[in-house]
């Protein structure tokens, strides 16, 4: 097996400080800039869709694929990419992912018709899927103890900003540069930043150190291509119905492919001693309680928040008649709080992580109670609009507590040799649940809007009541995060493992 690309010698030990190892800040910078671009590309395009429709003459189906193509390619490629990083080294895969993403961004920004744009978005998604699992693997290898918590805290900052600030930046580009160059700039901005990040990664990340492994261990067959194809089919089958209407029949195919994938991986694992080939994902990974519970908690949280922000943008623009920039600025207080709190929280995750998850989930439910009330009162003309931003600002500390903690807790007990594949599995679950959550939340919103409007053009009050229906669904997903956090907290209290050991398994 291949040791992941290393940075400086890792800082180990049981000290109380959370200082990063020498050169750690540079490594985090070069890791988190591409992460920010890849996550921002999910949300920034939402406010650009009307401009794309007007400039390229895109149909409704074309616009659906602008969103779906990126998400599908992103979700399908992460687990194989994580496994490839485990085998062949994470530095070259990380740099390759950046370059693929940059190429797709350039093609998207210069696209002259919807087909080219959608193909470019697929290429961007593949690049994102290639680079994202390497980030988790490199953090696991380079950072240890409280320094790892701090690193994941900064990662949590970037995740929160990437998801929530995208609409703000997209609206700003379009307002300043106009519709045509505004939407193109949402893609072209990635090109110079990505090229700089790739150059710095080549310089700052040390080459992967490989043990004396058999050449077969680094062959394409070692990647488990059958397992990769089966998992890709399962992921596509479960994501597409929640992205494109009228494709629910694919869910049955997804279940079948998922069953075949599990059977194949278990078979590969049972024959590993005889064949020398390991499965792409070792099924025993799911027998690690911290990994399974943490993946569920994170995925449920990410199923909730993107749908909420999407509904907020719809209500703000269509229901209240405010501009796109106002819709984007509503998420700014939460984004700033995530940015301010996540690094500090990361330094204490090893002591209080399980408690942080429960606390953050409870706080997010309070935010939903206040947010639902604000939607109703604003729609009725009783509260000013800024009260919605104030209510939803509580999602900032909630997300900082949950996401920072679950990143550390999920990966803590995973063997280092499997960090890339494990990170890919966890991130794939996040992408799948994001698609499901977005579909469920917006479906609840539009269903309630149709009932309240009685077939007529819905008024402002109807939008407020429909937003409350969406908030109820969001609260349901957040309750899953809370339940997972409580289960993990009770399990750790029973086992006497509330505080984590400084280092994860190295095997």
What's the structural blueprint in terms of helices and strands?
Layout: H1 24-43, H2 49-56, H3 60-88, H4 90-109, H5 114-142, H6 145-164, H7 166-177, H8 179-188, H9 190-204, H10 225-243, H11 250-270, H12 272-275, H13 289-319, H14 324-329, H15 332-346, H16 349-379, H17 386-392, H18 395-411, H19 419-453, H20 460-495
Q: Can you tell me about this structure?
A:
- This protein has 507 residues and is mostly helical.
- The protein folds into two domains: 24-208 and 220-224 and 280-495, Growth Hormone, Chain: A, CATH 1.20.1250; 225-279.
- Helices cover 76% and strands 0% of the residues.
- It contains 20 helices and no strands.
- It has helices at residues 24-43, 49-56, 60-88, 90-109, 114-142, 145-164, 166-177, 179-188, 190-204, 225-243, 250-270, 272-275, 289-319, 324-329, 332-346, 349-379, 386-392, 395-411, 419-453, 460-495.
- Helix 1 (24-43) runs antiparallel to helix 9 (190-204).
- The longest helix is centred in the C-terminal third of the chain and has 36 residues, at 460-495.
- The radius of gyration is 22 Å and the shape is globular.
- Mean pLDDT is 85; it is low at 1-17 and 209-214.
CATH architecture assignment name of the largest domain:
Up-down Bundle
CATH fold-level topology of the largest domain? Growth Hormone, Chain: A
Number of helices: 20
- End-to-end separation: 11 Å
Task: Report the CATH superfamily of the largest domain.
Answer: MFS general substrate transporter like domains
Query: Which structural class do you get from the secondary structure elements?
Result: mainly alpha
Low-confidence stretches: 1-17, 209-214
As a percent range, the share of helical residues equals over 70%
Average of the residue pLDDT scores: 85
Question: What would CATH call the class of the largest domain?
Answer: Mainly Alpha
What's the alpha carbon Rg, rounded to whole Å?
22 Å
């Amino acid at each position: 097996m291949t040791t992941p690309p290393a940075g400086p010698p890792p800082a180990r030990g049981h000290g109380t400080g959370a200082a990063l190892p020498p050169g750690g800040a540079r490594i985090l910078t070069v890791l988190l800039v591409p992460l920010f671009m890849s996550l921002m590309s999910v949300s920034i395009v939402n406010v650009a869709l009307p401009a794309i429709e007007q400039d390229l003459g895109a149909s409704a189906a074309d616009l659906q694929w602008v969103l779906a193509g990126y998400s599908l390619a992103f979700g399908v490629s992460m687990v194989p990419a994580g496994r490839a990083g485990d085998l062949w080294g994470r530095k070259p895969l990380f740099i390759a992912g950046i370059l693929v993403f940059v190429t797709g961004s350039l093609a998207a920004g210069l696209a002259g018709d919807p087909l080219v744009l959608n193909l470019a978005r697929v290429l961007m998604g593949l690049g994102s899927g290639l680079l994202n699992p390497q980030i988790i693997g490199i953090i696991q290898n380079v950072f240890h103890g409280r320094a790892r918590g701090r690193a994941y805290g900064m990662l949590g900052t970037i995740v929160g900003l990437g998801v929530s600030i995208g609409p703000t930046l997209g609206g700003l580009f379009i307002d300043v540069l106009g519709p045509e160059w505004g939407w193109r700039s949402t893609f072209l901005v990635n090109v110079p930043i990505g090229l700089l990040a790739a150059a710095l990664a080549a310089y700052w990340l040390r080459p992967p150190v490989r043990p004396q492994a058999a050449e077969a261990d680094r062959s394409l067959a070692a990647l488990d291509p059958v397992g990769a194809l089966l998992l890709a089919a399962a992921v596509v089958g479960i994501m597409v119905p929640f992205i494109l209407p009228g494709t629910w029949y694919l869910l049955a195919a997804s279940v079948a492919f998922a069953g075949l994938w599990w059977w194949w991986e278990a078979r590969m694992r049972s024959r590993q001693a005889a064949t020398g080939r390991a499965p792409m994902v070792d099924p025993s990974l799911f027998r690690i309680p911290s990994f399974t519970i943490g993946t569920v908690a994170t995925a449920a949280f990410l199923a909730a928040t993107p749908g909420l922000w999407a509904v907020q943008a719809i209500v703000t623009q269509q229901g209240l008649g405010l501009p796109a920039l106002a819709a984007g600025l509503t998420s700014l207080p939460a984004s700033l709080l995530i940015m301010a709190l996540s690094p500090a929280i990361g330094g204490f995750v090893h002591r209080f992580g399980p408690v942080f998850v429960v606390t953050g989930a409870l706080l997010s439910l309070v935010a939903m109670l206040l947010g639902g009330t604000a939607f109703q009162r604003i729609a009725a003309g009783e509260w000013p609009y800024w009260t919605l931003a104030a209510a939803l600002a509580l999602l900032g500390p909630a997300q900082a507590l949950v996401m920072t903690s679950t990143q550390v807790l999920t990966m803590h007990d995973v063997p280092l040799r499997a960090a890339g594949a494990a990170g890919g599995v966890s991130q794939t679950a996040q992408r799948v649940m994001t698609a499901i959550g977005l579909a469920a939340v917006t479906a609840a919103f539009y269903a309630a809007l149709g009932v309240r409007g009685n077939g007529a053009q819905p008024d402002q009050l109807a939008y407020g009541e429909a937003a409350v229906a969406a908030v109820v669904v969001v609260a349901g997903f957040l309750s899953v995060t809370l339940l997972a956090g409580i289960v993990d907290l009770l399990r750790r209290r029973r086992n006497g493992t509330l505080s984590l050991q400084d280092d994860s398994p190295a095997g």
